[in-house]
Amino acid sequence: MAVIAKTRETYPALGPGRATPPGGIREDLSDIIYNIAPEDTPFMSAIGKDACDNTYFEWQTDTLADPVANRQAEGTDPQELNAHAEPLRVGNYTQISSKAIRSSGTAEAVDFAGRKSTQAYQMAKKGKELKLDMESMLLGLDVMAAGSSASPRATAGVGAWIHTNLVNATAGTTPGKDAPTPGTAKAVEEDDIREAMKMCWDAGATPTVIMCDGTIKQAISALSQSVSELRTAANDKSPAYVVAAVDIYVSDFGNLQIVPNRLMPAKTAYLLDYEFWSTTYLRPFNSVDLAKTGDSMAQMLITEYGLRAKNEVANAAIHGWDASIEPTA
Fold first, then answer.
1. Which residues, including other chains, have CB under 8 Å from residue 234's CB and lie 6 or more apart?
2. What per-residue confidence (pLDDT) applies to 81?
3. Stated pTM of the model
4. For the chain, what is the HEC assignment?
5. Distance CA 116, CA 128 (A)
6. Which pLDDT belongs to residue 32?
7. Distance (Å, rounded) from C-alpha 146 to C-alpha 321?
8. Cβ-based neighbours of 314, under 8 Å, separated by 6 or more
9. pLDDT of 230
């Protein structure tokens, strides 16, 4: 009987006579999937949530009359009633947002690195993408739309609602239905923040946040260095560091936290009071199994919601800020 000799496979250095490595080497693939894409939604995470039971949902806003010289003569007849304004009835539409995924039977059966089920993994990812879509639309300048068989309903975003306290913009006719028209692009300047905050204070509002994109956030931080040197700090237990950012803006009428948001409309900053906004759900997030066709499975993540601007006067908007334009001295 012939004896077959078994030898251990070796891995010689690559050279002219060896163009590729030998076969049979197992790949080294980590069981962790690294995803660096941003998924934070500062606006949606900070405002409230409530519910509605119709595609058009309404609420009421009101304000106090301006002060007058209120002096009454003795014996004034209480039946001489003062003129008064009724609460204003406003509303917004809900809109539908969804994401869907289909996986083959084979994709569910094979052993993937980093996930037990490709369908479950993709659905979880679609959920994060859906929230990013919502954040972007809720902050936008899109106006409300009733929708039709040919076009979807649309909910009015923050930019379409803020009409009273505007800097470098002209208000439309009706909040939520007509978006403001931004003025000419201009540099990021502290005077605009002061003006917006004064408008809010005059109206009785106290916003607590400036929300803007990263470019404008850096421009606001740069404003502080035009009036003061970079601050440094050090002690015997830690290295020195440089503070070159502004996170809290202290105004004459209250403090404003500067919150960067990747999904803010370009060249725009909002002064917000979170208490006067909420995401209103007609249908909360729900996973729906779609009809099975052939050797595959399909699911849809869907939600129906709108933005409730409880009183737009509690907020302000600065339009047309362009960080590439140098501020005036």
1. 240, 241
2. 66
3. 0.81
4. CCCCCCCCCCCCCCECCECCCCCCCCCCCCCCCCCCCCCCCHHHHHCEEEECCCCEEEEEECCCCCCCCCCCCCCCCCCCCCCCCCCEEEEEECEEEEEEEEEEHHHHHCCCCCCCCHHHHHHHHHHHHHHHHHHHHHHCCCCCECCCCCCCCECCCHHHHCCCCEECEECCCCCCCCCCEECCCECCCHHHHHHHHHHHHHCCCCCCEEEECHHHHHHHHHHHCCCCCCEEEEECCEEEEEECCCCEEEECCEEEEEEECCCCCCCEEEEECHHHEEEEEEEEEEEEECCCCCCEEEEEEEEEEEEEECCHHHCEEEECECCCCCCCC
5. 19
6. 54
7. 31
8. 200, 203, 205, 206, 207, 273, 275, 276
9. 45
Token pair, residue 116, equals: 């037990």
Q: Is 295 exposed, middle or buried (0-12, 13-18, 19+ CB in 10 A)?
A: exposed
pLDDT at position 311: 95
Distance, in Å, from the CA atom of 132 to the CA atom of 135, rounded to the nearest integer, reads 5
At 315 the pLDDT is 97
Phi, psi at 70, each rounded to 5°: -100, 85
- Amino acid identity of residue 290, one-letter, is L
279 touches 131 (CB < 8 A):
no
Question: What are the mean pLDDT values of the chain's consecutive 10-residue runs (329 residues total)?
Answer: 49 54 55 62 94 95 83 74 80 95 75 70 87 96 94 97 97 95 95 96 94 94 60 58 71 92 96 96 91 85 95 97 86
**Residue 80, CB-side half-sphere exposure with 13 Å CA sphere:** 5
What is the predicted pLDDT for the residue at 3? 47
Residues 229-262 have pLDDT tens digits of: 445 555 566 665 555 567 888 889 999 999 999 9
Cα–Cα distances in angstroms (integers) from residue 39 to residues 6, 36, 44, in the given order: 55, 9, 12
Residues in the chain: 329
